[in-house]
Design a protein that fits this description.
132 residues, alpha+beta, Alpha-Beta Plaits, 37% helix
Length: 132
């Protein structure tokens, strides 16, 4: 009888523990926590390569290219940081209040001086490849 009671209690304990585990434990963040929607969009913009005659002027006037782009698109620049000579991270406010980031990207991509524009966002790896 004592053996039966002990076995039953152990089965209940194991069953209760298994019921509490409903998914795999993965401590890696899959998305940002606590990110609130803001009116400022963070975008990465790469400018098209300048011609050789403009190459020296381009290196000297990088900030002028950013300012000119902001003026042409109607956006408000809050901050800018250079990644490379032609690539920048920009914190911009949309031209129209409440405009989605997709519309802001379309404004930037339509500019002839822009090679590409993408949203600056964090990526979280879920798996690492192990090659032998």
């Amino acid at each position: 009888m004592r053996w039966l009671t002990c076995t039953m209690l152990m089965a209940i304990a194991v069953g209760a523990g298994a019921a509490g585990v409903n998914s795999e434990f993965n401590p890696v963040r899959a998305h940002p926590h606590g990110s609130a929607a803001t009116a400022i969009h963070r975008v990465i913009v790469k400018f098209r390569a300048a011609s050789n005659s403009r190459q020296t002027a381009q290196t000297r006037l990088v900030q002028d290219r950013v300012s000119a782009l902001i003026g042409r698109t109607g956006l408000t620049l809050r901050a800018s940081r250079s990644i490379t000579g032609a690539m920048h991270v920009m914190h911009v406010e949309p031209a129209v209040a409440g405009e989605p980031v997709a519309a802001t990207l379309e404004r930037l991509r339509a500019d002839p001086d822009v090679e590409y524009a993408e949203v600056d966002q964090r990526r979280y790896p879920q798996e690492l490849c192990h090659h032998a």
